[in-house]
Amino acid sequence: MLEITREPRSGRIACLNWPDAFPSRPDVQFEIYHTGDTLHLTYRVREDAVRAVCAADREHVWEDSCVEFFFAPRADGVYYNLECTCTGKVLLCRGTGRNGRESLPQAAYDGIVRRCSLGTAPFGLREEPTAWEVALEIPAATFGLERFDGLQARGNFYKCGDGLPVPHFVSWAPIDTPNPDFHRPEFFDTICFV
């Protein structure tokens, strides 16, 4: 369980769910808090190589050095996937499973404030150890909410890089599937906003 307050809390994305096929585990930490109507989420990453090919939102962000927040704010089966590259390119969709996901309107993308330590321009692949940070400010309205206060939800945090020389797939809460699959809400953990 994660309790999100108005003071920053730290967490680690360190579950190596498929160690035989994908043993790489970059160092990934996150800091999270809310201000009632906004969720503040900062990822700090150290990895052996970094990739930034996506030039715009809605591209194949998971192939770049990518951090993700999957979030189910209600018990209706709908969850949001907010995926962000090291240069702040975002994929933001909702739905009840991997297939048939709906990309949110442009206004939702525009409403997310992004700060990226590596800048916002694509630079390709850098095959060298790199530390980077991306900070996001996400309005409650992004998830169809008025406020976060008192919300009990479910979710998971991820780090991936499908297009890196050594792909990796790590999570905050463990996932028990034979192959990498982040679209598994049955493995989301409880997230409480106080």
Question: What attributes characterize this protein structure?
Answer:
44% strand; single chain; 194 residues; 1 helix; Immunoglobulin-like; 3% helix; five-stranded antiparallel sheet; mainly beta; 16 strands
What does this structure look like?
- This protein is 3% helix and 44% strand.
- The protein is mainly β.
- The strands form three sheets. Strands 1, 3, 7, 8, 9, 10, 14, 15 and 16 form a nine-stranded mixed sheet that branches. The protein has a five-stranded antiparallel sheet with strand order 2-4-5-13-11, with no helix packed on it. A two-stranded antiparallel sheet has the order 6-12.
- Strand 14 and strand 15 (169-171) form a beta hairpin.
- The model has no long low-confidence stretch (mean pLDDT 98).
Map the helices and strands.
Elements: E1 2-4, E2 9-12, E3 15-16, E4 27-34, E5 38-47, E6 50-52, E7 66-72, E8 79-85, E9 90-95, E10 102-103, H1 106-110, E11 113-116, E12 124-126, E13 130-139, E14 152-160, E15 169-171, E16 189-193
Parallel strand pairs: 1-16
Antiparallel strand pairs: 2-4, 3-15, 4-5, 5-13, 6-12, 7-8, 7-14, 8-9, 9-10, 11-13, 14-15, 14-16
Summarize the structure.
With 194 residues, the chain is mainly β. The protein has one helix and 16 strands.
Rg measurement, Å: 15 Å
Average pLDDT confidence is: 98
Give the name of the CATH architecture: Sandwich
Class from secondary-structure proportions? mainly beta
> How many DSSP H or I helices?
1
Summarize the main sheet. 9 strands, mixed
